[in-house]
Design brief:
Structural class: alpha+beta
Strand content: 15-25%
Order of helices and strands: EHHEHE
Shape: rod-shaped
Radius of gyration: 29 Å
Helix content: 25-40%
Strand order of the largest sheet: 2-1-3
Number of helices: 3
Number of strands: 3
Low-confidence stretches: none
Mean pLDDT: 85
Length: 126
């Protein structure tokens, strides 16, 4: 049979081991928790070119980025007029995956569309 005792707890020394000193009450050791920060985010940027059609850009935004027709058209117009437009902001892995998907989709259909993942804040200085 297992005997459970609810006597006074065994004091621990600063090294975490029980101490034999009957007068010692032990020490409380607090561990610092590392500070975690939000992961850096990346913007997926469409770049303008003279060959990819506006309709194809809208199609890509709707299929891969799940934008509705109005939002996709707005982004496409930014790309056309400004030279680049942001399709979305994601964690690095998701942004890089979206870029790979778009580039593969565009190449397969014969379009030289350029899409990149840039650290958040891209284009804010302009």
């Amino acid at each position: 049979m297992l005997k459970v005792s609810f006597d006074r707890p065994v004091p621990l020394a600063s090294n975490g081991h029980p101490t034999q000193d009957p007068d010692s009450e032990g020490e409380i050791v607090l561990k610092e928790r590392p500070v975690t920060s939000e992961p850096r985010r990346f913007v997926v940027v469409f770049h303008n070119d003279d060959y990819t059609t506006q309709e194809f850009v809208v199609q890509v935004l709707m299929q891969i980025f799940h934008k509705d027709s109005a939002a996709a058209t707005q982004i496409m117009l930014q790309v056309h007029h400004r030279g680049w437009g942001v399709a979305g902001i994601y964690t690095r892995d998701v942004a890089e995956t979206k870029v790979e998907q778009v580039n593969a989709y565009a190449r397969k259909r014969g379009h030289p569309l350029k899409v990149t993942a840039e650290p958040e804040g891209y284009g804010e200085q302009t």
